[in-house]
Fold:
Amino acid sequence: MAAARRRLLQRRPPQPKRTAKTHLEAFTAYSAGECHLAENTVAAYRRDLERFVEWLGDRSIPALTIRDLADYAGWLDEQKLAAASIARHIVSLKVFFRYLQLEGVLEKNLAELLGSRKLWERVPRVLSIEQVERLFTAPARFDPWWRRDRAMLELLYATGCRASEISGLKLSDVHVEESYCICRGKGDKERMVPLNARAIEVFQDYLREERPKLAARAGSPPEWALLSRRGKRLRRERIWELLKLYAARVESPQGVSPHTLRHSFATHLLAGGADLRQVQEMLGHVSIATTQIYTHVDLGRLKAVHRKFHPRA
Structure:
């Protein structure tokens, strides 16, 4: 019996060597197909792990030691990546190694021993209310689709949505009569976010004056709320580009991004007295610990509370 099995194994064609690149391809397919992760999440994991594969070279993943992985973190720092980017790369590596454990490639996930900086302790960039107002007036009548761009900015700030969520917003998700919209976040989770009167007014102006013209350029009636000049979905990359353009026009602080408006949305709500749990729900955060970062941002509010209640203020 044993001899027959040996002969069978000898006749079996040799299995191709699994490299880090083939593991990455399999992980990408697994994340999208079996885990049903969002397209942007899968793409972010892949970008981070391509850097890991570049650093790895011809070495074998199972042969890596914790010292090697610490060297990888140091190599990322040498690439002039920001602390937040390095921490994200480490998180991506931990997820990748968990997958390799499931596949039997690794016995232990040494990446779990790597420390990562606590991103939630970093204070995010926030615009003042005056800076937000100036930004919203930046799209002018000489811009090709200025009503759409004003609607885009208003929706980002009114909902606290990520750029990808605004890009994926369908027209049927925006309920102007009931003053709310349905946002789809990470993992395709839905949440309901109220819309203020200003955002509704600007969005309706875009619906009347510009969206029909943009929709006419598409082959079939588009379902997306915000349309590109070809009548397609306004890509998140284009949302970034437009925001950068208008931020530079009104001399907003450097580094303004769609996430800056998301941070400003949360901070201004808390400064106005909103409950932390309600802000967590509107942002779509799984953990309230992620939302708590915004409680450290509004120094002006803390000073006002101190002046009001401290006996020696």
Observations:
- The domain at 18-117 is CATH 1.10.150.130 (DNA polymerase; domain 1).
